[in-house]
């Protein structure tokens, strides 16, 4: 293996520790803990795991966790009524509705009901607009985590060629905007991109966020490129396995021989999502108390 492993798990653990220290100081100053409300609708197995991890991480970081579990047949009106109750609750600084939502619940309508000042997921159109025009606001946790890893490795990203594969509202588009803000030259590639391998081959930085297991191959990469793999895909179990392996959107075994640095799956980008969520919640809490968020958080 020639590539350096980007250890998102260790970076995230450090970030959670830093947030925890600042959260304890916040509680002293404000006379209350910062609070995060997480809403889970239905019983999707992966979402259950993420929601449990978020609750545990919130408490470990000296913040208050409020979990709301609703039945899968909850109506949109009931869900929005809960969001509005949380908007009005002064103990709640951040509100997160775990995605995906079951059935035909309209994610956009539910996200639109969240007070933008409590939108710690950064999914509200107001947060997206603020990111687009360079105004302060909440940035989605996964892309913010990716840019933290990239800046930690490269410092200055000015002039670097970055290719983001995937154009989702929650990863691809905000990721491209963050790279642009860091003065990279950015291309967003997607399923209709002609000659995807050729486009990826120009990149100093590749962010793969397509949700297709091991789609990005080693021979698509420029030697020495930094590869950030956002995908989390579970393969079908091989013979003798009860559970399939987790893999990213990049063929890791091949890519690690060509890339300069690469995030593994698991243990790369995934853990950053929850660490950044805690960071965003603490920033929201400072804003709600009229306090300046800690420097460098
Ligand atoms: N409202 C939201 N919903 C969803 C988000 C989100 O940011 N906000 N992101 C994902 C799920 N997610 C957090 O909610 C999340 C995904 C993955 C990880 C993680 O640490 N993954 C591990 C592997 C875990 C495993 O073994 O299965 C890793 O990559 O190392 C954390 C959070 C969709 N929904």
Automatic annotation (TrEMBL):
Q: Where is the Tetrahydrofolate dehydrogenase/cyclohydrolase NAD(P)-binding domain?
A: 140-288
Q: Does the keyword Chloroplast apply?
A: no
Q: What is one Pfam family matched by this protein?
A: THF_DHG_CYH_C
Q: Which InterPro entries match?
A: Aminoacid_DH-like_N_sf, NAD(P)-bd_dom_sf, THF_DH/CycHdrlase, THF_DH/CycHdrlase_cat_dom, THF_DH/CycHdrlase_CS, THF_DH/CycHdrlase_NAD-bd_dom
Which E.C. number(s) belong to this protein? Answer: 1.5.1.5, 3.5.4.9
Give a GO biological-process term.
Answer: tetrahydrofolate interconversion
Q: Which residues form a coiled coil?
A: none
Q: Is this entry keyworded Hydrolase? A: yes
Q: Which UniProt keywords apply?
A: Amino-acid biosynthesis, Histidine biosynthesis, Hydrolase, Methionine biosynthesis, Multifunctional enzyme, NADP, One-carbon metabolism, Oxidoreductase, Purine biosynthesis
Instruction: Outline the extent of the Tetrahydrofolate dehydrogenase/cyclohydrolase catalytic domain.
Output: 6-121
Q: Which GO terms describe its molecular function?
A: methenyltetrahydrofolate cyclohydrolase activity; methylenetetrahydrofolate dehydrogenase (NADP+) activity
Q: Which residues cross the membrane?
A: none
Q: Which domain of life is it from?
A: Bacteria
Catalytic activity, as annotated: (6R)-5,10-methenyltetrahydrofolate + H2O = (6R)-10-formyltetrahydrofolate + H(+); (6R)-5,10-methylene-5,6,7,8-tetrahydrofolate + NADP(+) = (6R)-5,10-methenyltetrahydrofolate + NADPH
Q: Name one GO cellular component term.
A: cytosol
Q: Where does NADP(+) bind?
A: 166-168, 232
Q: In which pathway does it act?
A: One-carbon metabolism; tetrahydrofolate interconversion
Question: What's the stated role of this polypeptide?
Answer: Catalyzes the oxidation of 5,10-methylenetetrahydrofolate to 5,10-methenyltetrahydrofolate and then the hydrolysis of 5,10-methenyltetrahydrofolate to 10-formyltetrahydrofolate.
Q: State the family it belongs to.
A: Belongs to the tetrahydrofolate dehydrogenase/cyclohydrolase family.
Q: Which NCBIfam families match?
A: PRK14186.1, PRK14188.1
The record describes its quaternary structure and partners as: Homodimer.
User: What is the official name of this protein in its record?
Assistant: Bifunctional protein FolD
Organism encoding this protein: Alteriqipengyuania lutimaris
Give the source lineage, highest ranks first: Bacteria, Pseudomonadati, Pseudomonadota, Alphaproteobacteria, Sphingomonadales
């Amino acid at each position: 293996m020639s590539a350096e492993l980007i250890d998102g798990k260790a970076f995230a653990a450090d970030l959670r520790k830093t947030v925890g220290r600042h959260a304890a100081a916040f509680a002293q100053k404000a006379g209350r803990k910062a609070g995060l409300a997480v809403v889970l609708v239905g019983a999707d197995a992966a979402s259950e795991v993420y929601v449990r991890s978020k609750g545990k991480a919130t408490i470990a970081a000296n913040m208050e966790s409020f979990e709301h579990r609703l039945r899968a047949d909850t109506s949109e009106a009931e869900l929005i009524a809960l969001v509005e109750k949380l908007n009005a609750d002064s103990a709640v600084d951040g509100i997160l509705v775990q995605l995906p939502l079951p059935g035909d619940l309209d994610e956009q309508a539910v996200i639109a009901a969240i007070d933008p000042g409590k939108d710690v997921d950064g999914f509200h159109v107001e947060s997206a607009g603020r990111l687009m025009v360079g105004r302060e606001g909440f940035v989605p946790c996964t892309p913010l985590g990716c840019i933290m890893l990239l800046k930690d490795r490269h410092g200055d990203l000015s002039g670097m060629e970055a290719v983001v594969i995937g154009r989702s509202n929650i990863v691809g588009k905000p990721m491209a905007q963050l790279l642009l803000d860091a003065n990279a030259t950015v291309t967003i590639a997607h399923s209709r991109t002609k000659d995807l391998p050729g486009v990826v081959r120009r990149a100093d930085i590749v962010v793969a966020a397509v949700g297709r297991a091991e789609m990005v191959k080693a021979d698509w990469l420029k030697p020495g490129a930094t590869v950030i793999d956002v995908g989390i895909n579970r393969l079908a179990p091989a013979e003798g396995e009860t559970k399939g392996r987790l893999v990213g959107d990049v063929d890791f075994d091949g890519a690690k021989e060509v890339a300069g640095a690469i995030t593994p799956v698991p243990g790369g980008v995934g853990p950053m999502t929850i660490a950044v969520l805690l960071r965003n919640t603490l920033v929201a809490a400072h804003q709600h108390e009229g306090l300046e968020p800690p420097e460098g958080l």
